[in-house]
Amino acid sequence: MDLTVWRTFVTVCRLGSLSAAAAELHHTQSAVSRQIAGLERQLGVSLMERHARGVRPTPAGEVFRRHALATLNEADCAVRAVRDVRDGVHHRPLAVGATPSLAAGIVPEAIRGLLKRNGTIRWSLTPGLSVQLHHRVIAGDLDAAVVTDAPPGLPADPRVEHRFLGLDEMVVVLPADHPQAGRDRVPVQALADETWVEDNDGSAALLRRHAARAGVSPRIDLAAADLPGKLALVATGHAIALIPGVLTRALRTDVTSVGLVDPPTRGVYLITPHRDPHPSTSPLLEQLTTAFTSLHPADPA
Predict the structure, then answer these.
(1) Nearest residue to 272 (alpha-carbon basis) of 260, 288, 259
(2) Bridging pattern class, strands 144-148 and 265-273
(3) Is the dihedral of CA 285, 287, 289, 292 positive or negative?
(4) 166, β-bridge pairs
(5) Which of 72, 61, 56 lies closest to 2 in space, CA to CA?
(6) Preceding peptide of 300 cis, ω within 30°
(7) What's the whole-model pTM score?
(8) Contacts of 212 (CB under 8 A, 6+ apart)
């Protein structure tokens, strides 16, 4: 398939208008319409539907949009890499993966430190679940990934090296006006009557395991697609949630966090391939360790 047509489709989805996409891409509106129609014929499914203010992707179109966008980003990276070689720039980009909480927490801070220390480095950040990122490191798609051993845990594989960064304490996030807001730590028994929301099986498993030790059973009645959705349900008072401690600095202002007595923890690791590691792996490890330590300072003696 012609990636030019894919780019046209993604642009129409982003702008919600055939005419606006045509103007941005310097095409005629009829040319854009023909490209979309041709793509639909190739795929054998309708990708766009009209509404009062323009167009939007159908359910099938939304699925295709996500994959098309990822493919276009990879294609752009390939073109830039080839041009770097042509121009005599031989430093390969650093491809980093991270779980959503770490991608929103310590990883951006560590990358900033890496760039400050080592100068300009081409890099990318891909979020994902720990097991998925582990497989992508093995496949060579990622040079490094910052992951956790939260359930179901990390696979044991001799093809990757695990570097332990530390233990991250899970905390409870509450609406800003919650009766428990402002406390340092609370026992989970004090939250036994609350409704909980979870966005992944690993976090839910940690919550259930922690609550079981205290003799209570949490009511996980709501599910969210991701962390922003999880926090939105907390902010609007529908539920409370268990989140990683690394996220506390990045929380929205209408929620607050409290610690748990004897909290559940998860190990945080940098994983890298044993063969052909990226030259920036070691300095990245140093910056990640610094960023993690800044969130988890040692207790005073």
Answers:
(1) 288
(2) antiparallel
(3) negative
(4) 268
(5) 72
(6) no
(7) 0.68
(8) none
Two tokens, residue 121: 């480095």
Apex CA 131: angle with CA 223 and CA 240, to 5°? 25
- What pLDDT digit, counting tens, does each position of 191-248 carry? 999 999 999 888 899 999 999 999 999 999 999 988 899 999 999 999 999 999 998 8
Q: Is the pLDDT confidence value at 297 over 70? A: no
Query: 5 near 41, Cβ under 8 Å?
Result: no
Lookup: tokens for 158: 């001799």
What amino acid occupies position 265?
A: T
